[in-house]
Amino acid sequence: MATTESSTGLSGLLLFGRYAYPPNRLGYCGANEHETLLDYLSIGRSDTGLAELARKFEGAYPYLRLIARANGIQDPFDPRVVEAYWIGNRLLEKVESSLFYSSLKERFRPRMTAREFTWLTTTLEMGAKPHHNFHVFDIYRRAGLVRDGQATIALGRMDQCRISWGRIVSIEESELVVERAALELKNGKLALGRRQPIRLTRRIGGRGYAEDLRPNDTVSIHWDWVCERLSPDKLRRLVANTRRAISNTNTTL
User: In this predicted model, what pLDDT tens digit does every residue of 221-235 receive, in sequence order?
Assistant: First the structure.
């Protein structure tokens, strides 16, 4: 398979893998092949085998196909499409609400009550887009986890599952410390709290893919794992899409 490289030199498949690996190693999504996935990422190899692994992520892959279709892009793993889903870019704006609605109805309507699905699609009227953090705040929440007695536990899982960002404070061999704002519930609404130091993983058994990092770099984070260094523009777009997702979600809480 021929691959297209992103502005950082990564193919779309490798960029996808950087964000998909952290939950995959915990058994939350994708096939039970996280060791193979980490092998690909650690040596930077992109081929048909990696494509087969990536297509097994049943949560994320349909969003990639949706974004690609809306923008007339043939390859769902085009790096622009992958970046749109995890970080956010102009491709999201080309996804019309009617197309997004049809995708959500096909995938999630059978799993929800009519009322839950109506709440979900209300966010489309406010400009919701197929960004990963939309999936975390709205699809995850429609399982009833924020409203029930386990709200605190669910909030913590949502906070880890969203794509977040942090500034590196210190770097060690296999971990690093970053300052990061946690997701909170304030007066019944989602919000980002004050930045606090947390420890993140960047290597396991000497294998990893978050290299060439320095203190004060800003990195993206998924399930307590460093995904990549963020440029100022990427950070701006991730923050904007996160705030949009939080704002839209709060109207239905």
Answer: 999 999 999 999 999
